[in-house]
Sequence to fold (540 residues):
Amino acid sequence: MSHQESYDVVVLGSGAAGLTAAFTAATEGARVGVFEKNSRVGGTTAWSGGHVWIPANHRMAEVGADDSLEEGITYLTALARGLVEPELVHAFAENGPSMARYLEEHGAVEFFAVPGLPDYHPEHPGGKPGGGRTLGSTLFPFDTLGDWKDKVEKSPYYSVHLRMDETGIGSAVPKPPSAEEIARREEQDERGMGGGLIGALLAGCLRAGVEFHLSSPGVELVVADGRVTGVAVEDSDGRHQVTATKGVILATGGFEWNEEYRKTFLRGAIHKAASIPTNTGDALRMSLKAGAALQNMREAWWIPVVDLPDGVNSMNLEMINADRTRPRSIMVNRAGRRFVNEAANYNAIVGAFHAEDVTAFDYANIPAWIIVDHTNLTTYGSAGRPYSGTTPPWLVEAPTLRELAGKLGIPADELERTVARWNENVAAGVDPDFHRGESAHDLWWGDPYKKGTVEGTLGPIDQGPFYAMKLMPGTIGTKGGPKVDAHARVVDLDGAVIPGLYAVGNTSSPTGPTYGGPGGTLGPGMTFAWIAARDAVGTD
Ligand SMILES: Cc1cc2nc3c(=O)[nH]c(=O)nc-3n(C[C@H](O)[C@H](O)[C@H](O)COP(=O)(O)OP(=O)(O)OC[C@H]3O[C@@H](n4cnc5c(N)ncnc54)[C@H](O)[C@@H]3O)c2cc1C
Fold:
């Protein structure tokens, strides 16, 4: 059966970028339809921590932080390595605070400023070692969503009833809520992190009259006289055409689950994606067919990952951040040598995984192993899970470093030398080789109870047995896609705007290699979504 529908604005995808665009367009008076490929709303965003990074945001003064538009632009420019158009840096920095304020003032989302959480490169010009740019998502009561509450994605990685700042990642120390408080949250189905953000945006969209179509992927753009006038959608009734009189906003996430695109475009190997598997680069294909130019194709939001056996979580992987940064741990390559500041942020560190050994003509640091001692394991657990008394199956265990090296197939003498040098440096309180512990970023991560001190990340590896975890490069989403201008309008190969077509979020993140700080993907994604919606609707 084929049928016709018409909206002012059609949004493809229901992550934070899609829902921010839909909410804004509807609030500005447009009739909006959201078409989502998945059977549930929320995309990777609903799986995420829900942090939103916005320089000079309206809430940072509440946590004693100050900032300015100029500092934000200076910082973003310093990280861009000349790979981001200055007009796009300005567009994000200038509109980010307005976007966040708009969502609050129009009742969609309530943010709070996360105290103390540093930028990812806080010592770069304009960086914030004391944080303030990261906005957290408050708890949202899903029982107010009626039938929609069961149509939102749940994170395979995080407990849905927690706020990020309660986990020890978004806070000075872990502040788990009491059992009574958790019971109350379960009763009202109050969810935090990315789930809370999506719940709040979804509620705002529904109030504003946005219509949702699940299990309805957009498959092709409709172009008439050079203008995008709609999109072909496939659902259980077959393929049909949906008209968009004011614009189509592509917010279908990245292409990380499309192996062909990964191989064609990304700068280096990816073992696994941690994002939602429906993100297969559909909007990239659609916009290429419509004549779009491309941008930022080689980049992703990178992260190291470890394979988990069946049954631990539904993705069979875990993203590895805290483990790398804690005392009594280092990372080594197959030569048994350290190769990086292990406590560097997850996006930057994958650059070291992509380094070449030109003699071997192979990646020098894939795979890598985290080496920890018994005190590390029993104190901090592994891969986000507390120590249970037995060695988790993703760790290789041996009584000595020499035997561990044998099991890993790496040179034992070299591993022993590496650990001995590490222990000497730890005793002196410095890491002259890779400068671990010198950045405010490194001092935030590490041992949550020693935050701010070098002992929070430097510690000897001297209590056997010893353990190794195999780390591989991964991603939480790719960045590249159709090239956009400062209004998030897609442009063609000649630089001319393709009228009626916008691309936002990970569908096209014009951020170069930059990951500014915690929330650095959702901040630009939601900001360009807000810009796109207002441009489509014609808001001044
Ligand atoms: C565990 C984890 C924690 C994270 N924490 C943070 C954090 O705290 N802060 C931060 O900034 N980033 C974080 N990230 C990254 C962040 O989640 C993503 O970068 C972000 O969600 C991307 O938003 P998006 O709206 O572009 O895409 P998504 O949220 O992935 O949404 C894209 C949607 O498009 C849909 N879609 C795909 N194809 C089609 C089609 N053809 N038609 C219609 N719909 C389609 C998909 O099904 C999906 O629902 C985290 C990621 C992970 C995995």
